Amino acid sequence: MLKIVSDLLKHDTRFRIAAVFLLAVLILIALTAVSPYDPTRTFKVPADIPPSLKYPFGTNSRGQDLFWWMAFALRNSLLLGLLTAAVSRVIAILVGLTAGYRGGLVDRVLMSVNDSFVVMPVLPVLILLSFLLRGQMNIPLLALILGLCGWPGDARLIRAQVLSLKERSFTRTAVYSGSTPLNISLNEHLPFVLPVVFATTIANMLWSIGMEVTLSVLGLSNVSLPTIGTAIYWANQHQALVAGIWWWLAAPIICAMVLFLGLYLLFSSVNEYIDPRTRLRLMGG
Amino acid sequence: MRRFVLGYLLPRIVQWAVVIFIGVTVTFIIPRLSPNDPVEKQVAELMASGAHISPQAVIEMRAALTEMYGLKGSSWEQYFGFWGRLFRGDMGPSLSTFPTPVTALIVRAMPWTLGLLLTAVLISWALGNVLGAFASYYPKSRIMGVIDVLSQAVRPIPYYVMALVMLIMFAYVVRIFPFSGAYPPGTHVEFTPQFILTVLKHSALPALSLVILGMGGWFLGMKSLTSNIISEDYVVYAETAGLRENNILFNYIIRNALLPQITGLALQLGSIFSGALIMEVVFGYPGMGTLTLQAVMGNDYSLIMGIAIFSIIGVATSVLILDLIYPLFDPRVRHQ
Amino acid sequence: MVLLTVENLRAYYRTEMYGISRTVRAVDGVSLELQRNEIYGVAGESSCGKTTLIKVIAGAIKPPLKVEEGRVHYQFGAFDVDMLRISADDLRSNVRWKEISYVMQGSMSVLNPVRRVITTFEDIVATHQGYTDKKAFLTQVQEHVSKLGLPPDVLNLYPHQLSGGMRQRVAIALATIFHPSLIIADEPTTALDVVVQRGVLQMLKDIQAESGNTVLLVTHDLAVHANVADRVAIMYAGRLVEEAPTQLIFNAPRHPYTQHLIHSLPMIGDKSPRASLGGRPPNLANPPSGCRFHPRCPHAMDVCRGQAPEMVKLTGGQRVACHLVTQ
Prior knowledge:
Largest sheet of chain C: 8 strands, mixed
Strand content of chain B: under 5%
Structural class of chain B: mainly alpha
Oligomer: heterotrimer
């Protein structure tokens, strides 16, 4: 594992950039433990001050120090991403393993449902959901809901993997020696499936954090909770652009970019490293 | 032919029906899970507005609202009534612009969204794929390298953030494009060249944002697809046979690589559609996106429901159409 | 008359990634001569370098493959070609397909899956020769194809509608459309059942007999060589170890590796168990020193470890590279 990291650091520019970005994010998040302000409170500091040494990201019209606010926002957004990824991984694994192993009618029904979720435009449905739950929205709930929408693509991948595993001899051996399907799925097949799961986790995280931004901007989540999305929401509410308080928008946008790019570059560089086919392709000249 | 119809067409049509069924059912169930009762909410709002209403009137209003919301009767009666009204194209009245029917609002906004989507998707898909194939086939090209890096940088950025950045850059910092809307308020909607020009100017930014984001994805996907196809036997053969590079690129590589991309387009339509909605909100473009915002701001839940259902049906049907077009490109599916 | 001279050819694959560089010495000092009007077979295990040798001979040299040293020289009668120095344009307009054509390994999938068979013919003829009258062209192709035993309406079908054997024949038809001087056939019968194999081999033999050209036949299947080839060369780990007329190779092999190959062939009526060579073919990125066969050779001597044997000429047109012979 350590060797992978050091190899990548030495040779892959993308990984280096990703490492820098993500490190910055993590440091910022760690700082929230020592934050001097409660992020949900307003008017703690003078409002509308542009970025300076004292207030690195400036302050907003609600009298909040943007630096600390964004630190919390990053923490919450990342937390959301991880939680959603966890929920959807679990569902995807369950569905994928079952559909792949059982086959037949179960498989067809599950895949039909799966494909429906893939085709359906989730945003309108999510808007509907969030609209109705407006008052009670918080991070875990949002994670749960997003997780319920994010599993289909990966379920299919896992199922494909299981289908090929089913034909291998170790599966047959397990069956003949009397293991239950559950046992086989969990103990024999799961380890093969996990790399696929990891590969899609980051993609899923990117998607869920992006969704959160969208929903919050429309005012559909708990707006007193700092996240990247709510930062933009408040900026819009106070007409930040028109009033010339550009740093209120710049801070969340830049933080978002750093977070997203960091995750994405990490994901694609590790993926390329692991996949032997891309390695071969890179050798072609 | 018969095998084709049964083996290919039928499952897809069934899937289309399933998607719509699940989508509509989910949309039906969700509001009923909420602790908020829209009828009571409406009544409460009305009473809070200070107008004096007799108790009798309140009861009648409650009944009327319940009927209108389709909340009368048991859940099953509601469900079937829901489907019945859907078939008749009746999605209830909008609350924020009472009593305009939701269907009318959607029909008015839909062409804008459709126009934006069609152009943006076609351009980004076609352009992205062709460029991606070029990038893979001519790996030393500098331009392609730049596009590659840009695409990778843009890929993870959510639609909203992208739209915001574009807005800030091109409407605020460098004021080329107008800030919002599809035409200045007060203009008549007509098909004069002048009007069309104004519309184009206003739709440029949302379209551009969609294209930039979309193209990156197709570019990267096609590039990776193409590099796999380059090592396929028939491409190596064509090269060994000395065929010209352009011929190989277009007739052997792109023709084959496009096939999974068509399928990919079908799979992505849902999220592209969502992206378009977001773009509209940011740029104030008068399509379904802005309609959604209006619905959210106005607490208009029947409008939101209508939009949700319509989106599901629309996207599912588009996917079906794509599925039906695919055999035209892949003879292996046409002739068994 | 000599058609092709290959002198001391070295072709390596060089790769570098994540800080690790690797050189695979796929062809490491091969010299041979192809005559006109013969079928020349090359035999050897997988990853002995035969495909790389063919790529270089056919002029399909692309990174990471690089020719380090050597000479590949053709004498086509009307003109000569130095394969390692010829320009890509020259190659395409004068040599490819007109003088040298290629029947690929896995010809099952050499046809473009989304276009009809005839389009490949069109593409190839249009690129190398051009045609003005579409109808005349079509009739010509149909004639050519039916002469090879294929029904002419094959041209209007899609590749997936043809059987494996038919696709192989179409590949051969494509390779012979210009009646080239050299046809390179790389494993033309692998993945075909024996009946179809026979048909394909017969087709090759007939074409060769009729036009008097040269066929370079590469396959690990010695039975095919026994059936079809005039001369056979055995390759091991990037080097030629023996070359001789077919009869001689099968009746009197001199190199231990060849001897082993011949003895391992099943014979009708002979039920004795066959011995197998210990070990595995060497890793071409890190080949053994001296004679590459010495780790597995039952007769290995000290000199074999240190020095690579040179090819020596014996009677009857046989060549061997083995210290046993040169002692």
